[in-house]
Design a protein that fits this description.
17 strands, alpha/beta, 7 helices, Rossmann fold, Ubiquitin-like (UB roll), single chain, globular, 3 domains, six-stranded parallel beta sheet, Elongation Factor Tu (Ef-tu), domain 3
């Protein structure tokens, strides 16, 4: 239920990206445009091809009426040798290339292994003088993505240590490694010096929250903690963030052609300035979703506030985030930039789009 898709460019080019980054696929499924982001699982040290690794997401077995993963199933069923796909990117700040360190601890679960694999390949390919401990959690040995490749890397590279735990040992009686969810005792066996390492974590949100809380409780220096989310929305905290759009003058000022009969100021409304559209929406709607529903073209990437691809300028009004996104610099916030994939309108807002 896992496939790796290897892409080459036409005409041929060398792909340039950092290990751990992701790309966004622009697809058309059932006549509708669909975008999905996937971590790159290949290494920039092998630049002639680019790979993504996708796990098929079935519908819940206890709820057959709920939909299966739209894009993952479409890719598995429709992409073959010779298929053409538009990729946007690379994007993302989840990379070890920008934070050189003598010791790394990579911790992943499920499909969160893909950016870790990219970083691991790159470190091994380049002969980096870095001590790496790779910790992965899977349901059973049959669910370990890249298992044989990881074992080979650990055998060939003395400074690359692999540790895997399975959370459903009853599914795999032959497994002789670690079992159970990652905990303090297990971590101290896998990486006794974990406090001295730069840590990268990727997996489902509950897994990452557990790892982050565990590390914080063990006096790990959290400034050395990095994470990338795979699957599910973060719990809402509903903090309103005041917009401080910078005044726009002269020729830089967008030409506003707003529709008549604007909604009341208290009703969530998004005005797309350049597109001359004003749209009422629900308080829970993010601006990117509103734009896509109305056919307003906006770039997007991760759709969780991590990459900055959806960055636009807020010309009027306020937006709120579930929590402050990482992909905005302080200077950009002061200039009124927002991330449309996670920003919700507070009353009436005007966006440069």
């Amino acid at each position: 239920d896992v496939k790796t898709f290897r892409f080459v460019a036409e005409p041929p080019i060398l792909f340039s990206y950092k290990p751990g980054q992701f790309v966004t696929l622009d697809l058309e499924i059932d006549g509708k445009p669909v975008k999905r982001s996937y971590s790159i699982s290949s290494s920039p040290s092998r630049p002639h091809t680019l790979e993504i690794t996708v796990k098929r997401v079935p519908g819940p077995p206890d709820a057959p009426d709920l939909p299966a993963g739209l894009v993952s199933n479409w890719l598995h069923d429709n992409i073959n040798v010779g298929s053409e796909v538009r990729l946007n990117g690379p994007m993302g700040k989840f990379t070890c290339a920008d934070h050189r360190a003598d010791k790394l601890l990579l911790i992943s679960a499920g499909s969160g292994i893909t950016p870790m694999m990219s970083m691991s390949k790159w470190l091994c390919d380049t002969g980096a003088d870095v001590d790496v401990v790779f910790v992965h959690s899977a349901r059973s040995s049959q669910d370990i993505i890249f298992h044989q490749k990881l074992q080979l890397m650990a055998a060939l590279h003395p400074n690359f240590k692999l540790a895997i735990t399975t959370t459903r040992p009853e599914l795999d009686q032959a497994w002789s490694g670690y079992t159970g969810r990652l905990n303090q005792a297990m971590l101290e066996q896998m990486a006794p010096d974990f406090r001295d390492r730069i840590v990268y974590v990727c997996g489902p949100n509950p897994f990452m929250a557990g790892v982050k809380g565990m590390l914080a409780g063990l006096d790990f220096p959290m400034e050395n903690y990095n994470e990338e989310s795979f699957g599910g929305k973060k719990p809402s905290k509903k903090k309103a963030t005041a917009a401080t759009p910078e005044p726009v003058k002269g020729e830089d000022r967008p030409r506003l052609h707003l529709v008549e009969s604007p909604s009341t100021s208290n009703e969530p409304t998004v005005v797309f300035a350049e597109s001359a559209k004003e749209v009422s929406c629900d308080a829970e709607d993010v601006i990117l979703d509103v734009a896509e529903q109305e056919g307003v073209p906006l770039p997007s990437g991760c759709r969780m506030g991590a990459c900055g691809a959806c960055k636009r300028k807020l010309l009027e009004g306020k937006v709120e985030y579930d929590e402050e996104p990482d992909a905005l610099e302080d200077e950009e916030r002061q200039q009124g930039m927002i991330l449309t994939c996670v920003a919700r309108p507070v009353g009436r807002v005007v966006v440069s789009a």
